[in-house]
Amino acid sequence: MLKKKVEDICNRQVEREGYSANLYLAMASWAEVNGLAGVAEWLYAQAEEEKIHMLKFIRYINERGGKAIIPAFQKPPAEFKDVEQVFKEALKHEQLITASINEIVDLTLTEKDFNTRNFLEWFLAEQVEEEASAKAVLDKLSIGGKNSLYQFDRDIMSLRAKSGEVQTT
Ligand SMILES: [Fe+2]
Ligand SMILES: [Fe+2]
C-alpha cells in the first residue's frame, strides 16, 4: 500500500509527464506547420514516449493500492522562435523532470518505500537519456544544422536511434 505522501508525489508526476507529452505535441505541431517534417516526427515520437511515462505512473499508483488522478493540463506554448528555441526549451524541461524524479526518489528514501524506489530506477536511467537526446540535437544545430535546416530536418530522426525505451537490464 502506498503511503499518502508517496501517492501524492507520484500523482504530481502523472501531471508532469502528461504535460511533457502535450508540450512535445505543441512543439511537433509548430514544426509541422513550419515545414519541418523531420523535426515534427522527432517531437511526435517524443510525445508518445511521454504518454508512456505518464501511463507507467498511473498503472504503478493503482497497482500499489493508490488512486491515480488524471488532471487538467496547463496549456503549452503554441509559438516558438525557431527550432533552436524548441530544443533549448526541451532540454530545460527535461532537466526539470530529472529534478522532479530525484525529489520522488528522495521522498521514497525518507519514507523507506523501497518498492517505489525500485520502480523509479527506470526513470532515473530514462532521464539521463532524455537530457542527452535533447543535447545531441542542440549540438547538431550548433555545428551547422542552423545553416542547413533542410539537411538537419532530413537527418534528425537518425539522432533518435539510441533513444526511446531505455535498456535497464
Ligand atoms: Fe518523461
Ligand atoms: Fe522526457
Highlighted features:
169 residues, mainly alpha, binds fe (ii) ion
Biggest sheet, open or closed, and with what strands and sense? Answer: none
Poorly predicted spans: none
Find the count of extended strands (DSSP E, 2+ residues).
0
Proportion of residues in β-strands: under 5%
Structural class assignment: mainly alpha
In brief, what are we looking at here?
73% of the residues lie in helices and 0% in strands. It has 5 helices and no strands. The chain is elongated.
Note down, in words, how this protein is organized.
- The chain is mainly α.
- It has five helices and no strands.
- It has helices spanning 4-33, 37-63, 83-110, 114-145, 149-155.
- Helix 1 runs antiparallel to helix 3, helix 3 (83-110) runs antiparallel to helix 4 and helix 4 runs antiparallel to helix 5.
- The longest helix is centred in the last third of the chain and has 32 residues, at 114-145.
- The radius of gyration is 17 Å and the shape is elongated.
- The mean pLDDT is 94.
- Residues 20, 50, 94, 97, 130 line the site of one fe (ii) ion.
